[in-house]
Amino acid sequence: MTDAPLLKVNAVSKFYGQRIGCKEVSFDLWPGEVLAIVGESGSGKTTLLNCISTRLLPTTGSVEYTMRDGSVRDLYHMSEAERRFLMRTDWGFVHQNPADGLRMTVSAGANVGERLMAVGNRHYGNIRATASDWLTRVEISKDRIDDAPRAFSGGMRQRLQIARNLVTGPRLVFMDEPTGGLDVSVQARLLDLVRGLVNDLGLSAIIVTHDLAVARLLSHRMMVMKDGHVIEHGLTDRVLDDPREPYTQLLVSSILQV
Amino acid sequence: MATSLVVSEVFKSFTMHLRDGIKLPVVKDVNFSVASGECIVLGGPSGIGKSSILKMLYGNYAVDAGQILVSHHGRIVDIATADPRTVLDVRRHTLGYVSQFLRTVPRVSALDVVAEPLVARGVVAEEARQSASALLSQLNLPKELWGLPPATFSGGEQQRVNIARGFITDHSILLLDEPTASLDARNRRVVVEMIAEKKQKGVALLGIFHDEEVREAVAGRILDVMQFSPRKAAA
Amino acid sequence: MSPEVPSDQGLAAYNFAYLDEQTKRMIRRAILKAIAIPGYQVPFASREMPMPYGWGTGGVQVTASIIGPDDVLKVIDQGADDTTNAVSIRAFFQKVANVAVTTHTKEATIIQTRHRIPEQALSEGQVLVYQVPIPEPLRFLEPRETETRKMHALEEYGLMHVKLYEDIAHNGRISKTYAYPVKVAGRYVMDPSPTPKFDNPKMHMSDALQLFGAGREKRIYAIPPYTEVVSLDFEDHPFEIQRFDKPCALCGAENVYLDEVILDDKGGRMFVCSDTDHCEDRREHGHAGEMLARQEAAE
Ligand SMILES: Nc1ncnc2c1ncn2[C@@H]1O[C@H](COP(=O)(O)OP(=O)(O)O)[C@@H](O)[C@H]1O
Ligand SMILES: [Mg+2]
Ligand SMILES: [Zn+2]
Fold first, then answer.
1. What distance in Å separates the CA atoms of residue C44 and residue C58, rounded to the nearest whole number?
2. Which InterPro entries is this protein grouped with (chain A) (predicted)?
3. Strand pairing partners for A22?
4. Does domain C21-139+165-231 bear CATH number 3.40.50.11310?
5. Can you give the residue ranges of every domain in chain A?
6. What is the Cα Rg of chain C in Å?
7. Which of A18, A48, B41, B193 could form a disulfide with B219 if both were Cys (CB 3.0 to 4.6 A apart)?
8. Domain range for residue B40?
9. Which residues contact B181 (CB under 8 A, 6 or more apart)?
């Protein structure tokens, strides 16, 4: 057990005018930990995820992040340049819709290689070899390296998006409904792949999902959100097997088996 | 012998919010301890709360009150109040659990399912697989099955994978919830041997066994869960 | 403005160089800012000019703002002084500024260009004004202007290499031959306008001031004299300029940019200097290429 959390979320609230996006959310995320944020649509999951990942500025609250050098930084007081650098090196963001996270008009290889080039890698051969390696890791055949993601199936696109994010060896990955738009059979494969990668790489992750089975399979801990509030928070199997709050019991009971 | 696990004044009830908030008491004032090298068997009729006790000890169920103290990395951790990260660390290093059913993960082979707890503790994959192979052989799981995901296995085969997975580590406390339920006589005897080995190594075991023969063979002491029943008290 | 201005100065006496003084001052401010931040695209309030966009209205406004009565102007289009575009811009400035014009690179103080840099090395005091259609090098992959500005501000140029990567992946080499992106003074990535990449090395440490004007897009940018200009590339696919197998058919020049000229409908063709002034100058100094030698022999 390392003795510093990777991320420290302190009373983050986001209001959209009068409406609550999320309210007073606090938690720590530790290295290697996977946290699932569950709740029905509109409960504030994505708002919270976007606030934590600095894609959205919260109304109040702070988020501290432990950098690779061990220093702790307040994310909302970083310069934009630093934050964007962090986002494309030490973080990943996997969108529900792969088109939001990919460059649809350039090849799979360039999609994976982009972050490498962004951090100054200038050797075409090495970039291509790394991209090819990552395609294999996400179970995309190497011979598709020069095809644009437009020619890929939904599941392949999502796997490509994951490779594109992981190529710089990030320590923290945000995922917003990563299996959302996929067929059930395709979902299982993707989940399995994500689970394997997260384990192998020792990643920390925050996964937003409305699917409790996804939370069960991938996460160590989960947070249940309702109307912008975190109403229950604990070890994933504890929350799912012994839900305390009325709403959590409703969520758990409304699916057959998770 | 050193005490590995102390359960003190534990209460548990379920509040069923979807059924008008009725409160379902399960156990009250649970007190017992398990020493290193000892195997205690929980007894009592079905529905009395045996599995619930194991799940509380594992952190899978919350407790209403009381303490569940385990000796973890040389310090005492109260599972009842520990944060999730600590509970996970206790599970990884100190507290093992063999449930009645294997929760299968798609596309992961039986061998890797068994090896995983070792890998999670930093053992190199090849070494972990070797230990897994040894256990699966011991439990007579046909070698053809090792490379396949257990999702399609029979109940007894899945159970053996589950047992191997639970026994592969050197956890100092093992919780066993009817691990022999769907096994034939031969494999039941293997499990009995494996439990004896664990005892010998100083592991504290707490289990639920319906099979009389197994219970006789492993139990150092039988703890009647009836004594913790709130219903009995009310009667 | 004095009434005694001789009438033969015509339009030049009304508003020198067509633009009113306020506008010129505004554009000069943009130019100064551009020079101060090499490669950075400075927005400016581009004016309507009496010629359509695509005819170099950006370059014309820049030239109009810096030209003075003593300047000598040269205008080239793809290296030639005699295309319609070059001729009409030259005529325009003769009319509105009454300046001397020339086709000789060495004589010019200001050279307005579309798609070429003269072969003759420029010297201190000369100004090269480029006509630019699309100033934003990042646009092809990132259409959002807000985002590309941010990328420039934060020096996030990975995308430029994505484009080059794609080129190599699909063609086996960087096949981009013109408007080849450069990094200026180690900071801003810049589109050198659609000049052939052959000319990119001429921008590096040039003795002359280089100004770029994009009329439709309302941007001005600059490379001050003696500024480092590096063409982007990969370590294992270094930047290379085009090479020509033969020298100019007319003047025999080597290491110059050549245009293909079709001679007849039987597939006859020759390669000649794209820089017509350079070619003529060489011929005047007695150089002769293969084609010229043959003609002379025939005479
Ligand atoms: N997750 C749960 N939610 C609600 N009630 C539960 C849950 N788990 C167990 N119970 C109830 O608690 C009581 C004890 O069950 P259990 O611990 O499974 O008993 P045993 O293992 O002794 O058969 C039963 O009434 C059971 O229905
Ligand atoms: Mg039971
Ligand atoms: Zn020539």
1. 10
2. AAA+_ATPase, ABC_transporter-like_ATP-bd, ABC_transporter-like_CS, P-loop_NTPase, PhnK
3. A14
4. yes
5. 1-90+171-258, 101-169
6. 20
7. B41
8. 1-94+173-235
9. B100, B159, B210, B211
* Residue bearing the CA closest to ligand 1, atom 25: B47
CA-nearest of C100, C98, C102 to C6 is: C98
Lookup result for tokens 């503790």: B121
Residue C210, token pair as written in the block: 């280089």
Same domain membership, residue B195 and residue B137? no
Closest C-alpha among A40, A110, A44, A54 to residue A85:
A54
- Name the segment(s) of chain C with CATH classification 3.40.50.11310: 21-139+165-231
User: What is the DSSP secondary-structure string of C123-182?
Assistant: -TT-EEEEE-S---TTTTT---HHHHHHHHHTT--HHHHHHHHHHHHHHSS----BS--E
Mean pLDDT value of segment A186-212? 89
C203 torsion bin: left (phi>0), alpha (psi -120 to 50), beta (else) = alpha
User: C147 and chain A: CB distance < 8 Å anywhere?
Assistant: no
Give the pairing of strands C127-131 and C209-214.
parallel
Residue B28 CA from chain centroid, whole number: 21
Q: Residue C114: which of C45, C53, C66, C204 has the closest Cα?
A: C53
Q: Which tens digits make up the pLDDT trace of B135-151?
A: 999 999 999 999 999 98
- Give me Rg for the CA atoms of chain B: 18
CA distance C279 to chain A (A): 39
Range B16-26 burial, b when 16+ CB lie within 10 A, else e: ebeeeeeeebb
Residues C215-246 pLDDT 10s: 999 999 999 999 999 999 999 999 999 999 99
Q: What is the CATH number of the domain that holds B61?
A: 3.40.50.300
Query: Of C156, C163, C165, which has the smallest distance from its Cβ to A124's Cβ?
Result: C165
Question: H or E stretch including B98?
Answer: strand B95-98
Question: Using N-to-C axis directions, what is the helix angle for C21-36 and C57-66, rounded to 10°?
Answer: 100
Last residue of a domain, one of B170, B201, B225: B170
| B61–A188 CB contact, under 8 Å | no
- 3 state SS of B128: helix
Q: Which residue did the predictor score with more confidence, A231 or C141? A: A231
Joined together, the tokens standing for residue C158 give: 């990975």
Most confident of A185-189, A233-237, B153-157: A233-237
Ligand 1 shell residues, CB under 6 Å: A 241-242; B 14, 24, 26, 46-52
Q: What is the pLDDT of residues A1-26, one digit of tens each?
A: 457 899 999 999 999 999 999 999 99
C-alpha triplet C219, C222, C225: angle, nearest 5°: 170
User: What is the rounded distance in angstroms from the CA atom of residue A84 to the CA atom of residue C159?
Assistant: 14
B109 and B158: one domain?
A: yes
Q: Would you call C169 an interface residue with chain A, using a CB distance cutoff of 8 Å?
A: yes
DSSP state of B181: T
Residue type at position B1:
M
Which contiguous run of DSSP H or E holds residue C111?
strand C110-114
**Predicted local distance difference test score (pLDDT) of residue A21:** 94
Domain finish residue from B153, B170, B187? B170
Same domain for B26 and B114?
no
Tally of CB atoms within 10 A around C86: 23
Report d(CA C261, CA C244) in Å as an integer: 14
Task: Give me the CATH code for the A1-90+171-258 domain, please.
Answer: 3.40.50.300
Within chain B, residue ranges assigned H as helices are 50-58, 84-93, 110-120, 125-138, 155-167, 185-200, 212-218, 230-234
Element spanning C281, H or E: helix C276-284
Q: For residue A14, what are the contacts with CB-CB under 8 A and spacing of at least 6? A: A20, A21, A22, A44, A47, A48, A51, A56, A58, A59
